Amino acid sequence: MWKRRIPAMLLAAALGFAGSSPVMADFESAVADLNSGNYAASFQEFTRLSELGDAAAQVRLGWHYEQGLGTAPDRALALRW
Fold first, then answer.
1. Hey, where are the domains in the chain?
2. pTM
């Protein structure tokens, strides 16, 4: 019976820690910068998070490159991210 509960408890613990990570706070800050029109700041933060492997940040970084938000438009880099 405990063998069934352990994976569920580990998953719950991992999800609980994921929501409180510094990376998540940085992502939320970058989204807030994007929403407020501070494209240079959001571009820098999404770049940093993307280089760390954050998939959601990579999508948004690609969008920044496609639209030229906080950087010059670059379709090749947009596709890369």
1. 22-80
2. 0.71
